[in-house]
Fold Citrate synthase.
Amino acid sequence: MATAVAAKGLEGIVAANSAICWIDGEAGVLAYRGIDIHELAPKSTFEETAYLLWFGKLPNQAELAGFNQRLTEARTLPPEIIALLKSFPKSATPMEVLRTAVSALSMYDSDEKAVDHESNVRKSFSLTAQIAMLVAYYDRIRKGLDLPAPDPSLSHAGNFVWMLTGEKPSATATKTLDVALILHADHELNASTFAARVIAATLSDVHSAITGAIGALKGPLHGGANENVMRLLFAIDKEAKLSGADPVRHGLDYVASMLARKEKVPGCGHRVYKTEDPRATHLRTMSEDLGKSRGDSKWFDMSRAIEQYVKKEKKLNANVDFYSASTYTMLGIDIDLFTPIFAVSRIAGWAAHVIEQLDDNRLIRPRAEYIGPEYPVAYVPLAQR
Ligand SMILES: CC(=O)SCCNC(=O)CCNC(=O)[C@H](O)C(C)(C)COP(=O)(O)OP(=O)(O)OC[C@H]1O[C@@H](n2cnc3c(N)ncnc32)[C@H](O)[C@@H]1OP(=O)(O)O
Ligand SMILES: O=C([O-])CC(=O)C(=O)O
């Protein structure tokens, strides 16, 4: 007997037991394995955080060294995948390419079908290293640039910047990206993670689960919002330049008319947080700091004014996607890499959830409340319709 679900979009429905991530949406608390994100963001690294998510505790020095070694050794892509990246039309977006390339990678995995714990951990290392490579390399391929070999002396964040830019990463870029990767690494049963768990639970393979998760992350109601935040800021700035208006002032008028048209402001609102998204707190500071260090805080100032306006008018807070946009732009990163960079981080959380799901698996198969024509409806033969 099915139980009716009144909550549209499964709002408030608890759909899994998980020991990975805890969110208190009323208080604005986010914790990975019980450790507050405000502790992790300034003190941890992406590698330590991924270890925490996968293995349930912070690593000691030897464990971290072993983790780093496995991750750096996994920085390799089959030549066929590089050829595949080169074969895509120049119009292919990095997110489409990432989705397709991760799917294709399963064909080069030594044991694609294996879903035992050790195989899942091995694939988590591979995909974490490879997703960063795919994002960086596709960007360089579409720009006609060479592909720098991964540098094993660099951290995950540092090596990503190196593979993307072909230049030794600055301390600021490495640190900023590392903190951003920590902040984006997991978020309980968000849409992409839920998708990954549903796919994994059919005993399909890890690559299928992550491919599905990437597809879900791409949507503008989820990870895709960070790109739309920057498109919004650019559109406001362009109009302000043309009319000679102040971009901060113009931003408020622009957003006011969006709200009047009942359009959603990207990067604002959240299904779970009813107060400040604790990740936005850190990204706001990083955006402000980058603006100050560049001596040009236009993107931060515009963002801050819009954030405050939307909060006042709609009682909606900035989410993780809001300030990542200006932060990445000030690091010189192209807009359509923002959501792929989200995936560079979130693979840590997706992998943790796939491992957890498969360690104690049961098929995920809810019911729907039927609201169609009343049964039984007679079949009318084609000639009589
Ligand atoms: C990593 C992440 O996924 S974080 C989220 C990224 N997504 C975005 O930033 C896109 C913009 N935000 C949104 O679309 C939503 O706030 C979501 C999808 C994040 C959460 O959505 P839900 O919990 O389903 O709320 P829902 O979309 O039903 O909105 C509730 C009300 O708030 C309004 N609202 C919600 N977000 C916004 C927004 N960003 N701008 C304007 N109004 C908004 C809705 O229009 C709706 O108003 P109504 O009741 O008058 O119709
Ligand atoms: O939790 C959510 O619904 C979306 C989100 O913030 C995330 O995935 O980081």
About this structure: The mean pLDDT is 97.
